[in-house]
Specification:
Radius of gyration: 18 Å
Strand content: under 5%
Structural class: mainly alpha
Largest sheet: none
Shape: globular
Order of helices and strands: HHHHHH
Number of strands: 0
Mean pLDDT: 90
Helix content: over 70%
Length: 136
């Protein structure tokens, strides 16, 4: 819809939101929402919202290319199918590694530090992108 309707969002803002989505997920992994706010956000809703933002960012990037209107919809469907297949393959490999890691004693020792590192990286990414947005 973003490509067909010509919807644009600034690339800096999209990547900043991606960084904040990493922070959100790591904070949720640590039980932060339940502990600090007494609520557990709906994971499906957050995935949907962040997915729409990521998708709009991709649509904006695709509009930067000179795409022919002829065959645009089949090409976008094929492109998106390829992206989804790639994501499923990557997720499958990650799940195999994570399942193995969860079965080891080191998982419990490193889970908090791993999520704190992810949160830090997400904040750094978001901060850099917000800085880029403001300095345009």
């Amino acid at each position: 819809m973003g490509v067909l309707n010509g919807w644009h969002i600034n690339a800096y803002l999209v990547v900043a939101i991606i960084g904040l989505s990493i922070v959100y997920r790591a904070f949720d992994n640590l039980g932060g929402f339940k502990t600090l706010f007494g609520v557990q956000p709906n994971k499906k809703a957050s995935v949907l919202i962040f997915g729409f933002i990521h998708g709009l960012g991709l649509a904006t990037k695709l509009q930067d290319f000179s795409l022919s209107r002829e065959g645009l919809i089949p090409n976008m469907i094929a492109f998106n199918a390829g992206v989804e297949i790639g994501q499923l393959l990557a997720l499958g490999m990650i799940l195999v590694v994570m399942r193995y890691w969860r079965s080891t004693a080191s998982f419990a020792r490193h889970v908090v530090a791993s999520n704190v590192i992810l949160m830090t990286a997400g904040f750094v990414l978001a901060g850099l992108q917000f800085t880029g947005f403001l300095s345009q």
